[in-house]
Amino acid sequence: MMKLFTTTALLAALAMPALAVQPAEGEKLAQNQTYTYWLLDAIKSLDPAKNTDVEGSDVLRSLFEGLMNEDAKGAMIPGVAESFEESDDKLTYTFRLRDAKWSNGDPVTAGDFVYAWRRVVDPETASEYAWFMELMNIVNATEIVKGEKSPEELGVKAIDDKTLEVTLTTPTPYFIKTLSHATTYPVPQKVIEAEGDNWTQPGKLVGNGAFVLESHNLGVDITLKKNPDYWDAENVLMETVKGVTVNDNNVALTRYQAGELDRVQIPAGQYPRLKQEYPDQATSIPYACSYAYIYNVSEKGPEALKDVRVRRALSLAINRDIIVDNVLQGGQRPATTWTHWAIEGFEQPETELATLSQQEKTAKAKELLAEAGYGPDNPLNLTLQYNTDESHKKLAIAVQQFWKPLGVNVTLNNVEWKVHTDRLQNQDFDVARYAWCGDYNEASTFLDWFRTDGYNSGKWSNAEYDKLMADSKTAEDTTPLYKRAEEILAEEVPAAFVYHYAKVDMISPRIKGLPTENVLNTWYAKDLYRLAD
Amino acid sequence: MFAYIMRRLAVAIPTLLLLIVFSFVLMHMAPGGPFTQERALPPQVIANLNAKYGLDQPLWRQIASYLWGIVANFDFGPSFVYPDRTVNQLIAAGFPVTLTYGTLSFIAAVVVGVGLGVVAAIWHNGFLDYLAVGISIGAQVLPNFVMAPILVLVFTLWYRMLPGGGWSFEDPSYWIMPVIALGTSYMASIARITRSSMLEVLGSNHIRTARAKGMPEHRVILRHALKPALLPVISYLGPVFVSMITGSVVIDVYFSTGGIGKAFVDSALNRDYAVMMGVTILVGALTILFNLVVDILYAWIDPKIRY
Fold first, then answer.
1. Whole-angstrom Cα distance, residue B261 to residue B277?
2. Are the Cβ atoms of B32 and A126 closer than 8 angstroms?
């Protein structure tokens, strides 16, 4: 039902012109339309095929425009595509492109998309996000990445300058939702061929977005200026967008308070105080990431964790309310599912984690662990691995305390990030901290992780789960399938889900147009405007 | 002297070579690689990346082609983590920043440090001595990662006098806080070394003789005491200068200068092999160079030293 509704909403949106966010009546605009926001670190790449970061995507969204954009709630609205048609077998999509221009005056054509997408899968490019084209299920994407076929064989074709045809290997319910992702943006073939890897430098970079690149000092700042050639430029109010790197979050907050920044993340633990002091600025909005402790159930993992009773007990014993209310304190929510609660069309099942009180959960945990043969007399020894970070450490210490009364001796193992990921991918751990962020606003972006052939660092495997996820790709209504999949995760407990993220920020009350209901926190600088002081 | 310098430079080449090989091997021994990330990449994607950057070659081949690139084209390779940039571009962008604030900071630390040390030694056990010692102890115990946020709080938030971070070669207001935060503890060390060495020299025979001759005190201090007293300071300054101009991760992090100090630490954490090697070579070469400069200065200050 939900699926049907989404599709209808989409078609309706496509029938209308794209709606830009506009100031409400009575709002007085500032003379100086500038938005300055905080970046934790350097922007690693401005090449849509090579970018891998959220922060990079935020900039690329202004410099380029894909077939689709997102509105303030995360629903898909037309970007370069004016409209599209889906074939009856759901395997072919035909996009009609609008009259749009590159910032050098050239028209944006279907061929630009074909070039860009082939470039992403081309082994020569060695894009770290080549897998995204595989995720989109575009014909031959996997074979091309493997080097078995040539990039020209990718299932994307320019019928004419204004018509783009994409063919998929299998019906993909979320396909349209992937089209606002930076990896799918068109890129200027002429410029790339002329400049090579240097094409993303200021003065050289040519884009089709609402902004152009003014300057980029790596690790210091990046400045974008409004692009007068953008097809919807008349509805863009913001003139300058500036990302400022401040590597220390606390210093960034000080600089926000000094008026140097319009938006900054709130350092861990400071949200309650700031909310009280600045109720109009401190915000917490749901953000599509989930935090978990993954159990290693592979050959290389500890014997005890192969027993589902042990896994359940450990999960039940974690007091998520304490973690959320006393440790994180930023409007995060206790996790009873892997999928983030705010994902569109997702219904949380009534699992024991969701229904029992913590007292009941702890009692149940003791019982289960005793059944499995562990207790204070016969303690279970486990290592909990996490990567170096203050808040991961706090959580790990809390969990160590929650598990202690059950007779579980936890050794905390703090390792550097690369070592952590390396061990995760090689099943060289007992229990490990993990977090996953959604790529698109649909539950499969989370649930695919636990498929036997998913990322699935703990190597848990369940035939019914795999079948559900396979079926969901072609199902009319995916909601019951995803709900059932979460029920299996609750029964089998391949990981202890801990909390669902929130984005906790200070936002200047002068800045309007930032989305507060988009769970992927996808924002477009073209939708922003600044109010007068 | 010339022969000595040539000899030292000749030894520098194998030293650098050893440094390169050693760091290269150590770096590759660390678990994980530049493309290890939370979202495990499909094996074919990793294979493509490794092929592109030559990481699928045996280690000795990688070292050889890396060295050849440097010798033949002065090419330090591409960055794995910043795919739009080469190592040369990254160093060319970051090193001038660090060199600027590092040099200024060094000059400030030497001038103030030596001044404080001399004042403290002359008025030994007097009020000025206690004041100078007090200042330098205070400066020493206040680490720069504490001082940096305090500076931002005071000068950016409270007084709104200075930008809270970032970098501009045109606008010196961006330089002030990094210079203070970096130089303070070095200044304190220089002051302490100068003071104790000065005290020792002031108690020596040739100073007593000079005073007995009726030489004016300022000439005794400046001409006869200061020069030998500075010898230990200078041997301390050589490595300090290199470490200051090649950056401090603390300064780069708190003031977001875009300097080379943070790039170095990041490259190690990110396993950005080429950037890490590039900065290592830069730091190594500068260290060798300035150790030589110090030795030459020694000979110039102290005529007893001969090479």
1. 13
2. no
Q: Kindly report, residue by residue over A133-164, the tens digit of the pLDDT.
A: 998 999 999 999 999 999 999 999 999 999 99
Q: Distance (Å) from the C-alpha of residue A13 to the closest C-alpha of chain B?
A: 33
CB-based burial label for A254 (10 Å; 0-12, 13-18, 19+): buried
Cβ–Cβ below 8 Å for A418 and B164: no
Nearest to A57 by CA among A45, A70, A67: A45
Residues 240-279 (B) with a CB less than 8 A from some CB of A: 252-254, 256-258, 262-263, 269-271
* CB contact (8 A) between residue B256 and residue A134: no
DSSP state of B219: H
Q: Which residues 168-227 of B are in CB contact (within 8 Å) with A?
A: none
B146 vs A: CB within 8 A? no
For chain B, the first-to-last Cα distance in angstroms comes to 6
**Do residues B239 and B287 make contact, with C-beta atoms less than 8 angstroms apart?**
yes
Q: Is the ipTM of this complex over 0.95?
A: no
Closest chain B residue to A388, measured at CA: B269
- Compute the nearest-CA separation of A201 from chain B (Å): 8
Integer angstrom CA distances of residue A369 from A313, A314, A321, B184: 6, 8, 22, 57
Q: Note whether A344 and A517 are within 8 A (CB).
A: no
Helix (H, G, I), strand (E, B) or coil at A98: coil
Distance CA B241, CA B186 (A): 10
Rounded-to-integer distance, Cα A447 and Cα A338, Å: 7
Cβ <8 Å between A220 and B262? no
B306 φ, ψ to 5°? Answer: -130, 140
* Chain A nearest-CA residue for B30: A419
**Burial of residue B48 (number of CB atoms within 10 Å: 0-12, 13-18, 19+):** buried
Residue B16 to residue A194: CA distance in whole angstroms: 37
For residue B86, what are the β-bridge partners? Answer: B78
Chain segment A339-383, per-residue pLDDT in tens = 999 998 899 999 999 999 999 999 999 999 999 999 989 999 999
